[in-house]
Amino acid sequence: MTFSLAHLTDPHLPLPGRMPPLFHLRPKQELALLSWRRKRRLISTTVPLEALLADLEAQAPDHLAVTGDLVNLAAPAEMAAARCWLERLGEPDRVSVVPGNHDCTVPAPWPDGIGQWEPWMRGDADPGPGAAPRFPFLRRRGPLALICLSSAVPTPLFLASGRVGPQQLLQAGAWLQQTARDGLFRVVLIHHPPVIGEGGRRKALRDRSGLAGLLRRHGAELVLHGHHHVSRLAFLPGPAGPIPVIGLPSASAGLARPELARWHLHGVERDGAGWRLTTTARRYDPSSGQFRAAGSWTLRIDSAGPAGPGQ
Length: 311
Known about the structure:
Pfam families: Metallophos (PF00149). The chain has a seven-stranded mixed beta sheet with strand order 3-2-1-10-11-12-13, covered by helices on one side. The chain has one domain (3-306): 4-Layer Sandwich (Purple Acid Phosphatase, chain A, domain 2). Helix 4 (166-181) links the parallel strand 5 and strand 6. It is an alpha/beta fold. The protein has helices spanning 27-43, 46-59, 76-89, 166-181, 208-218; strands at residues 3-8, 63-66, 95-97, 137-141, 144-148, 185-189, 222-225, 232-237, 242-247, 262-271, 274-285, 290-302, 305-306.
């Protein structure tokens, strides 16, 4: 049987009406607000987001993954509005979320910040509500093991870089080994990609070499990320072959700056001793106000690694 995983990222939800005055914001938030007013508000709008929710309901994936940047400034009102949006997206056991750099623009107490999204960021073995934050977290869904990392850390002005840290890497390595022994399809979720992309070091994952080394030693079947707002298929070395690393544009982009909104539907099924990963792209069409199919490809992943894209 095929298990379907939807991936979307960087929705940058429009600012709610009850935002604090500019003089109540910190410098990094002020800069983000100016960026929103100057350009992002024209790109990220509610129209593609409503179409996205309708398309997800129509496609009915088994699980959804959201790889960060739900908000823009990380103001408390934004975090609360994003929780309401997550409630519309799906029940916490059907939606897995990792935070992005905009979600942690400035340091914030757990209950006022991303802790408001805690039900969607709770591992299967984690304590219940109110417990201290825990990254990474592990979820098993069907044949998938979702290993969810946080690369979101507050950074100085004009930087949008991320960091995982040694403790997360250590735990992720243990889970990669364990879930490989259990015969699961291992999906790593992270906001910042473990490869250099647009923006260079200013926007990069600072310890990407550590994560890439971990994947080279222990392997994974798939890495999903966001951050750069562009479609990208790359590969990292694994212990027996290349590991696909897939990124997406913003899920709310109604203008092609740099790309229109897109999400991916990944179908995972057994293929002999390995796996077959079929990815279908769903792209926003401004003329119709709907998401439409925009191509698909297949990767065959076995002990020798992915065989390469095919139709």
